[in-house]
Each structure stands twice: as structure tokens, then as C-alpha cells.
Amino acid sequence: MKHIWFATLLFSAATAWASSDVMPATASSANANPERGRKLLVNRQETGCVLCHAIPGMKEGGEMGPNLNGLSQRLSAEQIRYRIADPRLLNPQTFMPAYFSTQGLHNVAKPLIGKTILTEQGLEDIVAYLLTATKGP
Ligand code: HEC
Question: Which of 52, 69, 73, 120 gets mutated to test ligand 1 (max ligand atoms within 8 A of its CB)?
């Protein structure tokens, strides 16, 4: 009986990434640093997040994307990671950039070909900041 339960658990872990709206923690999540994440979020050159989003703890914020206040109350770390990595997976028409994907990019500047906008560590640092900063008032 025990092994049937274990097989079910393994199966659901394997299918979760492919079939739903979650992206499991990467190896870099162990070293995630919310302060580095905060710096990336406010950096217009590297990420531009604040051009479109109001984010708790940041003075400036845009209104083209959803306000990220209370984000961690409505979404899990895995769901937040998924939305930053490639928002096109949920909405192919979105104008939010896919920060951790190299799929479907055209005419990319030579030094950046094959590279994601965020590094794996950068993605995890941002998730760490958003998780703590958006817990609510
Ligand atoms: C050009 C505007 C733009 C930029 C830049 C942008 N976003 Fe977004 N973001 C959006 C829009 C629009 C949505 C809504 C998703 C959709 O289009 O369906 C969204 C959705 C999200 C969501 C899901 C919010 C929810 O409540 O479901 C998160 C989390 C998020 N963005 C984080 C980020 C982070 C972190 C960055 C920077 C690394 C970023 N965004 C950069 C426009 C942007």
C-alpha cells in the first residue's frame, strides 16, 4: 500500500511543472537574498519591473501591470516564480517580458543571444523580496 502512495506522490510532482501554473524552486533558491532582489526590482536598466508595477517598499511604481500589494497572500512562491519566468504561458498576449526564458526572441543584441534577462539567482532573489514585502500591511 505504501508504495502506491509514494508512486502517486512522485507522479504529481513530475506533472506539476508541466501542467499547472507553478515553477518549483531552483537550486539558487537556497541562497536567495531579498535585499539583492529589492535592488534588481528598482533597477530600470536590468529589470524595469517598477515601470509597470507598484511594489511595496518602492517609491516609484507604474500602473500598466497589476499592483503587487498583497501578492504573497494570493499566490505561492511557485506561482510567483512561474509568472516572472514566462508570463506568456498564462497569457500569450501579455506585454510583460519573459524574464527567465529564451524562447521566441528575435533580433536580440549579439552579446545577449541565448541568455535570459534574469539569472537564476536574480529570479530567486526577486521572489524572496516579493514574498516578504507583499505579506500585507
Ligand atoms: C511592460 C510592463 C511590465 C513589466 C516591465 C513587468 N511586468 Fe509584471 N505584469 C505586467 C502585466 C500586464 C501583468 C498581468 C499579466 C498579463 O498580462 O496577463 C503582470 C503580472 C505580473 C505578476 C502576477 C501578478 C498577479 O497578481 O497575478 C507578477 C508577480 C509580476 N508581473 C512581476 C513582475 C516582476 C518581478 C517584474 C520585473 C522582473 C515585472 N513583473 C515586469 C506588466 C509588466
Answer: 52
